[in-house]
Every structure is written in structure tokens, then in C-alpha cells.
UniProtKB/TrEMBL annotation:
Residues covered by the Peptidase S8/S53 domain: 129-589
Source organism of the structure: Kingdonia uniflora
Positions of the PA domain: 396-467
Entry-linked Gene3D superfamilies: 2.60.40.2310, 3.50.30.30, Peptidase S8 propeptide/proteinase inhibitor I9 (3.30.70.80), Peptidase S8/S53 domain (3.40.50.200)
Family: Belongs to the peptidase S8 family.
Amino-acid biosynthesis keyword on record: no
Compartment(s): Secreted
Gene Ontology terms, MF aspect: serine-type endopeptidase activity
Active site location: D138 (charge relay system), H211 (charge relay system), S553 (charge relay system)
Sequence ranges assigned to domain Subtilisin-like protease fibronectin type-III in this UniProt record: 667-771
Protein name: Uncharacterized protein
Main location: secreted
Keyword Glycoprotein: yes
Domain (Inhibitor I9) ranges: 25-103
Length: 779
């Protein structure tokens, strides 16, 4: 789902429209309390607004969605001029062009399973999430899969008010006590892309891509014995909250997902009564008041709905994290303790370790094959005498880039980039190659993801890739062997932060650490639709009930499902308290007791990589203390972040007055800490936090601090005594710089990390501390 390609597609379409009259989709935010009383409802009012602002004959036709719950306003097709006129209207708070978002999957189908069964206390305390509804905003669902059966489920939760919307290939009777609602949202998409292509998209909640079926079953799939891909890695497949109900909101289509539809779906989901919204989609970061997802999620949060989102797959570079509003739970990806080793054996006996989920017929045993570098075997350009196609296209094995004369019977070394990984294997296969080595390139590093290749193939690391290139250069006619070693369990170290998982710091609010935490997102086995191959290649005829793919798209629904369990166990907790419970109980130490490492360079990971750490469900159910945040607290934070009253109004849908809020950005009761020294005269930062005691009876907590370099952190008071559940106590974190930012080069910043931990003998309440010394270019 390449965003650039999507935009190019959209702009190509605009070409065919009459110049000057091209209409784009806009989302218009309206101050709804200004509605004149002559209009019976806002729909009439918006239609009238459109009549007076646009030149179209049938203005009501350009009115696409009307928003009333988490957002007030509508979406409509407007010309640039009309959009400008709309902005000038007094009741209009904002006019945003619709954007296309991408699904956050590292498109790498794989063959193995994650047989997760949560901790028993959490599962039983929550009755497996039975009374909780998870709204999955994605590509739809394949409801017939065993993962979605409704055997032995109780009646629908009483708070559920949603519907099962019929559409092509999706009759109402497909909804059940498991999949309790299904809707689809396409008007924004159709306006943006011109038309729905019904050969590739089905106009209903039916999933024709795979992503939505996969994420829904990660969050709430039922126990399915004998789950496997082609008999590989048999086991029990199960989601996080096996009895939670799934409500499907299909918002993503062949070319992506569009803001106006996403917002309409969030709105409907909240009206329908979902408890959790799971959104594994992303786009570039923009200011919260311009981002319909941040806006929609703010409204959802106010209605008590927990919203979890994927952090993005643009790691390992810094400042790549997306979906960063403080009221969202932003989830990065980690590995699990399972891998799929495959080896490349060179003629001189050297063994290069890689990863693969190739499961087809093996190469003849002990037979070696010539290896060639894709850039040196590229196809001739048609009609140009002797010219070969360009080196980048060839070395990344783009479609039709290889010369069959030079590839036949050989193993080809391809590099990552440009096209989906599994598609490169099919390019080699079409050219007559017998195998492929897929090498990471800068900045992929040492992170490996195994794929369900269509021919014998394995992925190797960046360093192994450069070594192999030198080897082939030095040994032009060498032969190699491949060996697939199946599934390896108890892999150490684990978990690792996935190489592709997007990293902080948070560009919009450096005072908030993002991502918030990580969860499993590499090689995750979950349900897969019929009609889509596990490699997702149209040319691949293989089908499977389950598939294994990777991405923060997969880690997000883990947290959504766990949130459903926590809500089941603690129905009165606010979304911020649920998130706090997961964050303060997360671990930054891996399962071997060593500091958690990140996959791309095998360096110790920091809170910019993993946030508070890896989610730890059995501890999250009984966190001891939680840190609550109200909608008003977020408003104070936005004021302190210099958002204007008007911008804040766009997010909160009500007037706000920052001049009566004496707040600092450090007062938001966030369950992690980031202090930024951005002025030369700053020497001390005071940060306040308020803990709510969520255990019965009396407890006495004592704090310990692991100091970041360059600062001394003290906590006042250093002990907190609670005598009853729900009691609140505040403490102040004093961060005193021992160095100063003169050591940081102009325009740069340096961050050091520490941690504070409250302990009462039973509970461990941890918070990472980031201290940044920054020297902005403009002082
Ligand atoms: C619809 O998709 C099919 C399959 O990708 C493609 O061949 C066809 O050209 C598309 N039609 C339109 C109108 O884009
Ligand atoms: C392949 O080589 C290994 C080790 O040299 C040997 O044990 C095995 O018997 C060989 N297999 C075949 C089919 O030749
Ligand atoms: C192509 O190049 C070859 C050798 O360089 C030459 O003999 C031949 O005439 C060229 N053909 C054309 C169509 O240019
Ligand atoms: C690719 O071809 C060039 C030019 O013939 C040669 O110098 C280089 O070693 C080749 N590289 C590999 C990896 O085979
Ligand atoms: C807000 O603006 C004031 C005045 O320009 C500045 O001193 C302060 O640092 C800004 N705060 C943030 C969080 O950017
Ligand atoms: C905001 O509050 C201040 C102080 O109470 C007041 O002077 C000002 O008029 C208020 N502004 C708005 C827009 O309500
Ligand atoms: C909490 O109780 C301990 C032990 O009784 C005591 O030493 C400490 O001062 C108390 N802390 C506060 C903040 O009252
Ligand atoms: C900042 O640090 C430098 C080097 O350690 C020192 O020379 C300077 O006096 C310090 N400035 C302030 C304002 O503390």
C-alpha cells in the first residue's frame, strides 16, 4: 500500500477532470452550536451551507458523511475555491483535505503460529473479554473462519447498538454472537480514487485483502486447534481476548484508506457502543488539530473508548513514529522467541544464516547452484540495442527486470526495496531462477523477517549481504547450497524491538515518549481469508486458513485485545487508566534478564525504540497504581503546547480558554516522563504526577531512580502511603541538569535515559525517563 503510488494515482485522475473544476474531498469541522434554529437538524444545515458555498447543481450529492458524535461537521467534494469560501465561514472551524492512509503491515506472509494464551488470572477475571466489544477499523473480515465461531458465547452485550450491514458477498446472517456488527465506509475512498474497482474490491465488509481478518483474529480470535499453514507449525491459534465481540468497520480498500471514511467509522463505532477501537493504519504526522484521526480518537476517548494504533513500520531511523497524540495508545512491534532459520552455504564451507518460511518442494539434496547478483543479470531494454535496464531496478528484482538467459538454473541475489519482498521471488522464478537470496540494505540492518516465498529463498542481514556481494565478485563462478531448517523455538534473546518498528522521539510533542509500548509484531500467525494467497501475490494460487505476517499492524491488535481483557476485569477504568496499567507494568528487560535489544543493530534499546517496554499482561491486570488523565487534562496540555483556543476547539468540539489554564506541558499525568532542556538558562524541570491506588487496603510504596546521564532526578516525597482503593497521591519529579546544552551542537539534541520505579513489595510501577538536551537553531 504505497502512499506515493496512491497519491500519483489520485493526481492522474484529476488530470481527466475539467481544469479549474476539479473537486477534492474535504472534511469540514463545524461549530455545531451555531446552528440556526430554522434548521431541524445539522444535515439540513450542512446541505444549505453547501448550497450557498458551492457552484454545483446538486450540492446534496457532494455531501458525503455527516459527523455528530466524536466530531461535528461533514465531508464533501469541493473545488479549491469552494474550500477557501468554506474556510471563511464563521461556523467553520477547519477544512481539511482528505488523505489516504496505508495499512501498517510489512507485507511478508509467513508460515508459523503464535499460540498465545494469556495469563489465566486476566482471562478468568475478564471472562475472556466476553462483555467487551472491539471495533476493528480495517479491510473487513472473512467471518466464516473458525477463529470467528460463536459457539458457547453468551448473549450480546447490553450496551451494543450496532448493526450488520449487508453488501456484496456479505449477508446479514453472517453476523453472529462473535462478529456482532459489520459496516463498510467507501464514499470518501470512491470520491478520492474516482471509482471503486470491483474486480479487486468488494463493496461490503467482506475482506478481500487479508489484513482485517488477520488483525481481528489477533485481537479476539477463538481457540482453533490444528491451526497451521500447509501443515507447517501445527498448533493452537488463539487471539488475545477469545470471547470478546468483534465489530467490523471496513475502511480500507485496494489503494488505501481515506480520512473521511475513517472518521465516519470512528464515529459510528462510538455510537454503536464499542469499548475498544483498533486501528492498524497510518499516515505522516501532522498537528493534532489537522489530523482527523487524532480528532476522532479524542471524541472516542471522551466516550470512554480505548483507542490503540500502530506506531508505523518506518524504523529503525529516528523520529519515524506516527499516530502520536497523547490520548492514543501507540504500539510498536517486538519479536517473539521463535524463528525460521535458513542457511546459505558457500562453496568454501562458510555458512550465512538467514530466515525463511519457504514451504514448497525442496531443491535437490546436496546439490549446489551458481549464484549471480541481480544487477549483473538484468534484462535488455526492448528496442534499445544492447542496453540493460538500470541497476537499481535490477538489483531490487523489480518485475521483468531479469534476463532469463542469464538467470536460468541459478540462485539470484536480490536487494530489498522498491517492491514487496515476496514479489521478488516470483520475478526470479518467472525468469527461470531456482532460488533467491534477499539481502537487507541500509538502513534495514540486522533485522530478519521470514517470508512465504514462492521458490526456495531466504532473507539475510545487511552485513551478510555486503559480505556475500564481495564473495560473489571475488568468486565469479561459485556455487552455493540452501538449507531450510524449519522452526526454532526458545530463540534468545527475545523479545527484540523489531527493526522495522517506528522510533521516537515524538516530533509534535517531545514531552511525551512515543511509541508507548511494544507488543508482538513479527511472524504472527492468525486467520486469513479465502481468495487471497499467503504471499498476497495474485499469481500465487496457494490458499490457507492461517497466515503469518509482520508489522506494527500486528502488534496493535495484541494491545487492543489485551485492553479488552483489562476492561473486562476493570469495567470502570478510563482509557488512560487501562493504558497506564499496560505501560507501568511493561518490561524493558528481556526474558533472559538482560536489557532489551533492538534488532537492526543489536544495540540496547531505548524508550525511543520501545516506549515503556514490552507489554506484560499478567502484571497489567494488577498494576497497583494507575495514572489517570481526563479530557480537560489533555486540553491543558494542548494549551501549554501553544495550541490556540481555535485549534483546541477543533479537537474538543467546545470552546476552550487557555488563559485560565496555568499549565505546563509537564503536568499531563502521562505514565512515562520526558524532560526537554531547550533553553540555555534552564537547569531544573519540575514534573508532577498523581497516582491512583487501585489495590484494596493499605500499601506503602518506595521509589528508586536510575539516573539518566547529565541529570539528577529526585522524587518528592520518596514514599507514598495509601490506605484505601481509589485514593490519590501526587509526587514531584525534579530533574536537575548537571551538564547543560552547550555540549550539544547547534540544531541538534542529545537524549539520555533513566527510569523510576515505585515498589510496595508486590507491585512494580515503572516509568522510563528521557532527558533531552537540545539546542534549537533559533535561540
Ligand atoms: C481493476 O483492477 C484490475 C485488476 O488489478 C485491473 O486489471 C483493471 O484495469 C482495473 N480497472 C480499473 C478501471 O482501474
Ligand atoms: C548430503 O550431505 C550430508 C553431509 O555431507 C550427508 O550426510 C547426506 O547423506 C547427503 N545427502 C544426500 C542425499 O546425498
Ligand atoms: C546493434 O549493435 C550491434 C553491435 O554493436 C550492431 O552490429 C548492430 O547493427 C546494432 N543494431 C542496431 C539496430 O542498431
Ligand atoms: C558485476 O559485474 C561487474 C562488471 O562485470 C563485476 O566487476 C562485479 O564483480 C560483478 N559483481 C558481482 C557481485 O558479481
Ligand atoms: C510556547 O510559546 C512560548 C512563547 O513563545 C515559549 O516560551 C514556550 O517555550 C512555548 N512552549 C512550547 C511548549 O512550545
Ligand atoms: C478567557 O478567560 C480570561 C480570564 O478569565 C478572560 O479575560 C477572557 O475574556 C476569556 N476569553 C474567552 C474567549 O472566553
Ligand atoms: C509512609 O510510611 C512510611 C512508613 O510508615 C513513612 O516512613 C513515610 O514517611 C510515609 N510517607 C509519607 C509520604 O507519609
Ligand atoms: C555549561 O557548560 C559549560 C561546559 O561544561 C560551562 O563552561 C558553562 O559555564 C556552563 N554554562 C552554564 C550556564 O551553566
Amino acid at each position: 500500500m504505497n502512499l506515493h503510488w496512491v497519491l500519483l494515482f489520485a493526481s492522474l485522475l484529476c488530470f481527466s477532470l475539467v481544469a479549474g473544476d476539479e473537486r477534492n474531498t474535504y472534511i469540514i469541522r463545524v461549530q455545531h452550536d451555531l446552528k440556526p434554529s430554522v434548521f431541524a437538524d445539522v444535515q439540513q444545515w450542512y446541505a444549505s451551507t453547501l448550497r450557498t458555498t458551492t457552484t454545483t447543481d446538486v450540492p446534496t450529492k457532494s455531501l458525503m458523511h455527516v459527523y455528530k458524535t466524536v466530531f461535528h461537521g461533514f465531508s464533501a467534494k469541493l473545488t479549491d475555491l469552494e474550500a477557501e469560501a468554506m474556510k471563511a465561514r464563521p461556523e467553520v472551524l477547519g477544512v481539511y483535505p482528505d488523505r489516504v492512509r496505508k495499512l501498517l503491515t510489512t507485507r511478508s506472509p509467513q508460515f508459523l503460529g503464535l499460540a498465545v494464551s494469556g495469563p489465566n488470572s486476566l482471562l478468568t477475571e475478564s471472562d475472556y473479554g466476553s462483555n467487551v466489544v472491539i471495533g476493528v477499523l480495517d479491510t473487513g473480515i472473512w467471518p466464516e473462519r473458525r477463529s470467528f465461531h460463536d459457539k458457547d458465547l453468551g448473549p450480546l452485550p447490553l450496551h451494543w447498538k450496532g448493526e450488520c450491514e449487508e453488501g456484496k458477498g456479505f449477508l446479514r446472517n453472517l453476523c453472529s454472537k462473535k462478529v456482532i456488527g459489520a459496516r463498510f465506509f467507501s464514499s470518501g475512498y470512491e470520491a478520492k480514487t474516482g471509482l471503486m474497482n470491483e474486480t479487486v474490491d468488494t463493496r461490503s465488509a467482506r475482506d478481500t485483502e487479508g489484513h482485517g481478518t488477520h488483525t481481528a483474529s489477533i485481537a479476539a480470535g477463538r481457540y482453533v486447534p490444528q491451526a497451521s499453514l500447509f501443515g507447517y507449525a501445527k498448533g493452537v491459534a488463539v487471539g488475545m481476548a477469545p470471547k470478546a465481540r468483534i465489530a467490523v468497520y471496513k475502511i480500507c480498500w485496494d489503494k488505501g484508506c481515506v480520512d473521511s471514511d475513517i472518521l465516519a467509522a470512528i464515529e459510528k463505532a462510538v455510537e454503536d457502543g464499542v469499548d475498544v477501537i483498533s486501528m492498524s493504519i497510518g499516515a505522516n504526522v501532522i498537528q493534532y488539530n489537522l489530523d482527523p484521526i487524532s480528532i476522532g480518537a479524542f471524541g472516542a476517548m471522551e466516550h470512554g473508548v480505548f483507542v490503540s494504533v500502530a506506531a508505523g513500520n518506518d524504523g529503525p531511523g529516528p523520529v519515524t513514529v506516527t499516530n502520536i497524540a497523547p490520548w492514543l495508545t501507540t504500539v510498536g512491534a517486538g519479536t517473539i522467541d521463535r524463528s525460521f532459520p535458513a542457511d546459505l552455504i558457500l562453496e568454501d564451507g562458510q555458512v550465512i544464516n538467514g530466515a525463511s518460511l519457504y514451504g514448497g518442494p525442496p531443491l535437490p539434496a546436496n546439490t549446489s547452484f551458481p549464484i549471480v547478483y541481480a544487477a549483473n543479470v538484468s534484462a535488455l531494454v526492448e528496442g534499445q540495442n544492447g542496453t540493460r535496464i538500470s541497476s537499481y531496478t535490477a538489483r531490487t528484482c523489480a518485475p521483468k527486470s531479469l534476463d532469463p538467459e542469464l538467470v536460468r538454473g541459478k540462485i539470484v541475489l536480490c536487494e530489498r526495496g522498491g517492491s514487496p519482498r515476496a514479489s521478488k521471488g516470483s520475478v526470479v522464478k518467472e525468469a527461470g531462477g531456482v532460488g533467491m537470496i534477499l539481502a537487507n540494505v541500509v538502513p534495514d540492518g540486522e533485522g530478519l523477517v521470514a517470508d512465504a516465498h514462492v521458490l526456495p529463498a531466504l532473507q539475510i542481514t545487511e552485513s551478510a549481504g555486503s559480505h556475500l556481494l564481495e564473495y560473489i565478485s571475488a568468486n565469479p563462478n561459485s556455487r552455493v547450497r540452501l538449507s531450510f531448517r524449519g522452526t526454532q523455538l526458545d530463540v534468545k534473546p527475545a523479545p527484540l524491538v523489531a527493526g522495522f518498528s517506528s522510533r521516537g522521539p515524538n516530533i509534535e510533542s517531545p514531552y511525551i515518549i512515543k511509541p508507548d509500548l511494544i507488543a508482538p509484531g513479527v511472524n504472527i500467525l492468525a486467520a486469513w481469508p479465502d481468495g487471497v494467497s499467503p504471499s498476497e501475490l495474485v499469481s500465487d494460487p496457494r490458499r490457507s486458513e492461517f497466515n503469518s505476517i509482520s508489522g506494527t499492524s500486528m502488534s496493535c491488535p495484541h494491545v487492543s485485545g489485551l485492553a479488552a481483557l483489562l476492561i473486562g476485569a476493570h469495567p470502570n477504568w478510563s482509557p488512560a487508566e487501562i493504558k497506564s496499567a499496560m505501560m507501568t507494568s511493561a518490561y524493558a528487560i528481556d526474558l533472559q534478564g538482560k536489557p532489551m535489544v533492538e534488532q537492526s543493530q543489536f544495540k540496547v534499546s531505548t524508550p525511543w525504540d520501545m516506549g515503556s517496554g514490552h507489554v506484560n499482561p499478567s502484571r497489567a491486570v494488577d498494576p497497583g497504581l494507575v495514572f489517570d488523565i481526563t479530557a480537560e487534562d489533555y486540553v491543558g496540555f494542548l494549551c501549554a503546547s501553544n495550541y490556540t483556543d481555535r485549534e483546541i476547539h477543533s479537537i474538543t468540539r467546545r470552546p476552550s480558554n487557555c488563559s485560565v489554564k496555568a499549565k505546563t506541558v509537564y503536568d499531563l499525568n502521562y505514565p512515562s516522563i520526558s524532560a526537554v532542556f531547550d533553553q540555555p538558562e534552564m537547569s531544573t524541570i519540575f514534573i508532577t504526577r498523581t497516582a491512583t491506588h487501585v489495590s484494596e487496603g493499605v500499601s506503602s510504596y518506595i521509589v528508586t531512580v536510575q539516573n539518566p546521564k547529565g541529570a539528577v532526578v529526585t522524587i518528592e516525597p520518596p514514599s507514598l502511603n495509601f490506605s484505601a482503593i481509589q485514593q490519590r497521591q501526587s509526587f514531584v519529579i525534579k530533574v536537575k541538569a548537571t551538564g547543560n546544552n552547550t555540549v550539544v551542537p547547534l540544531g541538534e539534541s542529545k537524549t539520555e535515559f533513566g527510569r523510576l520505579t515505585w515498589q510496595d513489595g508486590t507491585h512494580v510501577v515503572g516509568m522510563p525517563i528521557a532527558v533531552t538536551f537540545e539546542k534549537p537553531l533559533v535561540l
